Amino acid sequence: MTTEAPRFVYDFSEGNAEMKSLLGGKGAGLAEMTRIGVPVPDGFTVTTAACVATMKAGGTWPDGLWETIESRLDDLEARTGRTLGAAERPLLVSVRSGSVFSMPGMMDTILNLGISDAAAAGLAAETGNARFAWDSYRRFLSMYGEVVEGVPAHAFEDELTALKTRRGVTVDAELTAEDLQELVGTYRKVAAQHGAELPTDPREQLRRSVNAVFASWDNPRARVYRGINNIPDDLGTAVNIQQMVFGNRGDHSATGVAFTRNPSTGQKELYGEFLVNAQGEDVVAGIRTPNPLAELQAVLPEAYAEFLSTMDLLESHYADMQDIEFTIEEGKLYLLQTRNGKRTAAAALKIARDLVDAGVIDRPTALRRIEPAQLDQLLHPGLDASHGAVAITKGLNASPGAAVGSIVFDADTAAERGHAGDAVVLVRWETTPDDIHGVVAAQGVLTAHGGMTSHAAVVARGMGKPCVAGAGELHIDAKARTLTIGDTVLTEDDTLTLDGSTGNVYVGALALVPPQITDDFREVIGWADDVRRLGVRANADTGPDAAKARELGAEGIGLCRTEHMFMAADRLPAVQRMILASDAATRQAALDELLPMQQGDFEEIFEAMTGLPVTIRLIDPPLHEFLPDIVEQSLLVQRLEASGAPSDELDKARELLTHVKRLREMNPMLGTRGVRLSLLYPEICVMQTRAIVRAAVAVQARGVEPHVEIMVPLVGYAEELRRMREVIVETADKEIAAAGATLDYAVGTMIELPRAALTADRIADHADFFSFGTNDLTQTAVGISRDDAEGSFLAAYLEAGIVSENPFASVDADGVGELVRLGVERGRQTKPGLKTGVCGEHGGDPASIAIFDRIGLDYVSCSPYRVPLARLAAARVTLGE
User: Fold this and answer.
1) How far apart are the C-alpha atoms of 126 and 90, rounded to whole Å?
2) Among this protein's residues, is 839 annotated catalytic?
3) Which of 14, 348, 484, 738 shows the greatest Cβ crowding within 10 Å of its Cβ?
4) Is residue 329 within a helix (H) or strand (E), and if so which, with residue range?
5) C-alpha to C-alpha distance for 190 and 156, rounded to whole angstroms
6) Active-site position among 51, 560, 685, 839
C-alpha cells in the first residue's frame, strides 16, 4: 500500500477558511475572499507543512517542492498573461509569510520580486510611469537585500536619506524617476559592499525568498512574540506568492489598512488609514504618517464606496471584526488580506456584546473569542481626568491606557531596565518588529512617526500597552540620547506620562486612579458565570482587598494570610515582644495585645464577604521574618560598640541579635513554620482562633453572615492536623459558648508538601476541606527555590526548551498537577464530599485553571484583580476551549 505524498502548494482558488492550519491565516483568508468573490490578486500558497518539513530536515526542502512551485508559477503566468522578470508585460509578485496565528510584523515579506533593469524599463513603458517602475525596483532591492541576503536595513535607509538631503526633499514621493534609478545603482553597490551578490534570475530570487520566509519563522522577534502569546514553535509558516498590485503607481493609486470596527473601543465606526502613491509597508512600518480613511472619499470616491461595501461583506461573512489590507491601483480596488483583528480588551468585550445583541453570534461563541489574559488590560489604573496638567505634545491615541516611566530610546535598554523592575517608556522615531522585546518590557510606547495601524499601534494594542503614535513634534537624537519637544530637552533621567486614550503626553509622573469596570465587562463576564463549573475565590488579607475582590466577582476568600497583618508598624513591636519573651506570661501579654487587632481585621473581611466563605490561614512564616535581618542587626551592634553608645541601648541591640541568631535557620522555608510553629507555640494558634471566632460572633450580632474556614498550613503528617484541630475546636467552642452564640465553622489544611498529597487519605480524617498551596507545592515537589531559580537557571531552561513553562506561572501538569490529582482522589476516598480548592497564584492562570477543572477541584483562588480572568477562563474550560 502506497502513501500519497503530501501536497505542499495550493492556488488561492483551491482553498477556503477552514484550511487555516495548512494555508496559514493569510493564505486561508486570501482563498476565502477569492471564493466569495472579493477582488484579490491571483496567486498561490506554499503550506505550513512544507515549512515544517524543511525545518525538520535542517533546512532542506521536501523532494519536488521547488518543481511544484515552478509549475504553479507557470500557471499563474498563463492566467495573468505575464512572465516573471520579462522585459515586456513583466509579472511581479510578493512573497509573504502567513502563520496559523496572527503574528503582525514578526516574519518577513518581499515585494516586487521579478523586477530587473529590463523589467523596470518594460514596466515604465507599459504604464507610462517611469517613476513608479524605478520606485518599485529600489523597494525590491532593499527588501530582498535585507531579508534574503542579510544586508543591514539601515545601509539602504541611510542612502535613501542622503539622496533626499541632496535633493532638498523630505518624503520619498518627491524623488524623481531619475533619482530612483540612481538609487537602484547605489543599492546594488551597497549590497556588494556587504558581500551580497543579488541574483539576476527572477526564479532564483523567488526560491531564495521562499527559503528566507521559511527561516523567518525562527528569527528572534518571532520567537519572542510566540513566547509572549503562547504560540507553539512547531507550527511553521505558510508562504503566499501573489501577483503584485501597485499602490505606488501614481495619484490614482493608494494603499491602506482598515478595521471594520474601532480596535481600541469596539465602536462600529470607520477606522483605518491610507497613503496615496505608496506601498503597504509604508503604512504599517510608520515610515510616513498616513491619512484617516474617511479622507479617501475625496481622493478616490468610487474605490472608497466599493471598499466600504466590501468591509461590510467581510465582517458579515466572518461574523467578527476584520483587519483588512488593501491596495488601489489606478482606481481599482484589491484586497490583500483579511483576518480577525487584534483588539483591546475593552473592544473585545464591546464587540462580543454587540454581536450577541445583534444575533450574529451566541454567548458561548463570544466567550470563546475573548482571551482571559486580555482582561488584565482593563484592571490597570488610568489618569485622573481632573489632573490639570498641560500636555507637552499630542499624538494619535493608538492604544488606550496610561503609562508612567523613565524615557528610554532603544528596545534593548527598555528590556534591560524593564526586567530589572524599572518603569520605562520606550520612545522611538518608529518601532520595528525587532523592537518587540522592548515593547514587552516597557510601560508604554511613544513614536514620532506612524499611524493608528502602524506596527507600534498594532502590537501595543495586542499587548494592552498604552501607545501614542505619530507625535510629529518629537525630535529624537539617538546618539545624544535626548528628546526635544519645542524648547524642552529631555533625557533618560526624565519621566513621561502617556495617555493612550487621548494621545496626550506629559512631562513628569501624573497620579493614576483605579480602573473602572464597564457595563460591557459586567455583562460579558456575567455570561461566563452562567457557564462555568469551577468556583472562583480571591486571596485577600484586608477588608478593602476583600471588598474589591467581591466587586470583581469573587465568591469568597480562598486565602487570608494572617501574618501579613502582623507586619503593620503599629503591630510589629507587639509581635517582636511575643517572639522575644523569656517566659509564658510575657508571651501571653503580647498575644493579648495582638488579639483585638486581629479581631478588627477579621471583622472587616467578614463584613465585606457576608454570606460567602472566608478561609483564614493561621500563621505560616518562621518567626525570624518578623525580626531584623541578621546582617543588618550585626552591623548595628558593631556601630553602637564603635561609637560608645549607652549601655542600655547596646545591651538591647545585642539581645535582639542573640534572638535573631537563635531563630535563624539554614533553610527556613522547610524549617520551623506553619503547623510546626503552632505546635511548638500553641498559644499563637489559640490567640488567632479566638480572634477569628470573636470577630465572627461580633459581626453576626450586626446582621452579617460569616462563613468561617480555619486553615492549618504546611501539614505533612495526619497527626499534626489531628492535634491542631483539637486546639482549634476546643478554643472555638469555648468562645462560642461564652458568647452564647451559634456559629458554624470548618477546619481544614493546606496541601503544600508532596507527603501531604500522597497521604491525603489519612489527613482527610481530620480535615473539612483541602486547599492546595501550589506555590510551595511547586518548590517542594520540583525541588527548586522560586526566589533563586527565577533569577538563575530557570530562564536558561525555558530558552533551551528543557521546560516549556515557568512552573511558578503555570502549574507543572505532570508533576505538581499529578500530586494535586492524587491528593483530591485520596482525600475523597476518605470523605467523598471533601471540598477542595487551590490558593496559589496558579489559581489565576488560564492553563492551570484548565488542569484544576479536569482534576475536579471545587474552586480556585487568586489575587483580586485576577478574579475576572479566572471566571472567564473557567467558563472557557467548560465550553471545551
Assistant:
1) 9
2) yes
3) 348
4) strand 322-329
5) 7
6) 839
